[in-house]
Design a protein that fits this description.
Blueprint: E1 2-7, H1 11-20, E2 24-29, H2 33-41, E3 47-49, E4 60-63, H3 67-80, E5 86-89, H4 95-104, E6 109-115, E7 136-143, H5 147-160, E8 163-166, H6 170-202, H7 212-218, H8 225-233, H9 236-259, H10 262-276
Parallel strand pairs: 1-2, 1-4, 2-3, 4-5, 5-6, 7-8
Antiparallel strand pairs: 6-7
Amino acid sequence: MTRLAIVGFGHIGASIAKAVHADHEIIAIDHDEEVLRKARDRGLAGETSSDLAACRNADTVLLSVPVRTCVTLLEEVLSHMDPAALLLDVASTKGILLAEFHRLAPPVRYVSLHPLAGTERPGIDSANPEIFRGMPFLVLPVQNADEDAHAQVDRMIAACGGRKIQIGSVKEHDAALAVTIHLPHVLACALTHLAEESSQTLSTDIFDLAGRSFRDSTRVASSDIRMVHDFLSTNTGDTAAAIDRLVDHLGRIKKLLVAGNDEELKSLMNAAQKLRGRL
């Protein structure tokens, strides 16, 4: 049975532990002793530690902390790993982390992952293996990703019920996720502030008038701020470019509205409806 050390036992780390515990011996590593107590009490880990040295006991080490924390911890984690062990991460951006890995040039095998799953509720108390069911698991082989490494990754994804999608490059990953993950967080932030600004202008609480569409559109504004700031601030170029492109699309829609060009506007909306159906 594979001994899997999960560094960072929060929402995603603990959810993965729940999903794969049947064929993995889980080592939970976290700086929060209360988190480790919950991991033990709930049967999520057979071993717990606040010391990264516990990585030496693992066949596979999974980094499940914000990307800047991954970068900060990486050298120490690698210093404790067996050179034959497999390193995994689930970081939301890859460029800064993989640059640090290549700078350190360790001998370990490394496959970078990104499950496109989760909720706005952080922490071990929100752990739920069902969040991965049917969702994409992005896979980016980084170094020495041999047959055994791929087999381990495939078993993990299968246990989570995810869909494996191999990504060709760090650039492709970070540019794509700027549109599908990072930009929605920016939009939720902006729309929430717009609602508050409108409340002041209209002298009525817009939030009392919020329907399902507003709630759905702003749901991720309730996410862990440290996590969101972390992935936005480590992918500024791609996210800024995505914002610029969105502004162009908004400008086009605004022009159609102002001009009263109903047919072209309905055509644009119909095309968007069909595109949304691909999800």
